[in-house]
């Protein structure tokens, strides 16, 4: 019998962890999962390594990667375990979102969306595609879980809505909180802070609206140790249940930091668009209106995201001399075949 692959072992472990969880009785297990998705090369791995106190250079995430961390709760008390998943490839590998999110893990699952602030034209499509795909799968899993344990699903929904401010009841009619905890991180703030003031204003207000709409926390970070420490605190809250920060910063001239439920539509204001252009924008929802305003200033680039995925066969971190030599030989044979085929077709055209 062939030995199990690392992927099969990891999958089996996830299923085992989930089966050992609570049965919706309100008792949280000592294990939580945090799933990092977001912009390609946006800094997801760097954030994870910092949260785990691992002093090592980040490597490109090829597809879906897993690691874990432990935290002691006290003497002779079992350590809490946090499972960290990371989706690589930006928006090109959406099918892999379904792998770590299952009915067994959903109740202790959180999403961290990392968006590259230095690439504002890619920001909206990255955010939209990833959140839509993730929400679609989470909704399916919740429906499946609800058939077995309706109480657990009801508790999850109540917990999300409980974060919303009670003194802004009108917001509840215009927002649609994400079904599981969500944190949105704007990375590379060190580059973003040099943007034109008007551009920063649009990006900040738009992300505040998106975060509030989904009931998410929002914060900006960079390589700054102070900012990374604040991010680490937020991730630790998701991973180990540490008390969340209540601090808020909505100044567009500073790194944003807004905990879920502490913002409001009245504080965010209307989309930043000239009054004479407002009537020209036709939208069916607040989210669509903000999208139109944002993309007017930062039109999305039409890029085939699949082209962004690095070929693992040519990635030096997976180099194997014997396999690589055989690959080179096969590539040469393929090129030779293409050339000979081309000559044959040209000869046929001449003969005809």
UniProtKB/TrEMBL annotation:
Gene Ontology biological-process annotations: determination of left/right symmetry; intraciliary retrograde transport; intraciliary transport involved in cilium assembly; regulation of cilium assembly
Region entry Disordered, spans: 307-326, 332-352
GO molecular function terms attached to this record: dynein heavy chain binding
The keyword Cytoplasm is annotated on this UniProt entry: yes
SUPFAM superfamilies, alphabetized: P-loop containing nucleoside triphosphate hydrolases
A GO cellular-component term linked to this record: microtubule
Major location category of this protein: cytoplasm
Keywords, comma-separated and alphabetical: Cell projection, Cilium, Cilium biogenesis/degradation, Cytoplasm, Cytoskeleton, Developmental protein, Dynein, Microtubule, Motor protein
Keyword Cytoplasm appears in the UniProt entry: yes
Subcellular location(s) of the protein: Cytoplasm, Cytoskeleton, Cilium axoneme; Cytoplasm, Cytoskeleton, Cilium basal body; Cytoplasm, Cytoskeleton, Microtubule organizing center, Centrosome
Any one Pfam family match given in the protein's UniProt record, by short name: DLIC
Family: Belongs to the dynein light intermediate chain family.
Official protein name in the record: Cytoplasmic dynein 2 light intermediate chain 1
Protein species of origin: Monodon monoceros
Higher taxonomy: Eukaryota, Metazoa, Chordata, Craniata, Vertebrata
